[in-house]
Amino acid sequence: MADFVKLATPTAFARSSSLVSELYHYRQELIRTKESNKVLKPKLYLSIQLPNETGPEFPVKDLPSCCQCGSLIRSHIVWFGESLWPDPLQKHR
């Protein structure tokens, strides 16, 4: 089983963007079928594991890419080991 914390990083995305994209797709599908519970929700996010870590199911050619430069589009989130950009933080202080 793949570990969510190890896959939710820029390094993991650079190494296997397809596997990381599969993780977020799996997470969306899993959460879509659950009812909200304030106590269990953080635990759910930390315990999500992919059903198969032998390889990604999404071919890299099918992953979303930028129309202008062709580079892969990653999830719009802050990953473990990553910082927020300074400008948005400055704007809200």
Secondary structure topology:
Elements: H1 4-7, H2 10-15, H3 17-32, H4 41-47, H5 86-91
* Rg for CA atoms: 15 Å
Structural domain tally: 1
Q: Quick one: CATH class? A: Alpha Beta
State the helical fraction.
Answer: 40-55%
Q: First CA to last CA: what distance?
A: 41 Å
- CATH fold descriptor: SIR2/SIRT2 'Small Domain'
- Structural class estimated from helices and strands: mainly alpha
Number of helices: 5
Shape: globular
Task: Explain how this protein is built.
There is one protein chain. The protein has a single domain, classed as SIR2/SIRT2 'Small Domain'. The protein is globular and about 40 Å long. The protein has 93 residues and is mostly helical. The protein contains 5 helices and no strands. The model has no long low-confidence stretch (mean pLDDT 73).
Brief overview:
By secondary structure, the chain is mainly alpha-helical.
Give structural attributes.
single chain; SIR2/SIRT2 'Small Domain'
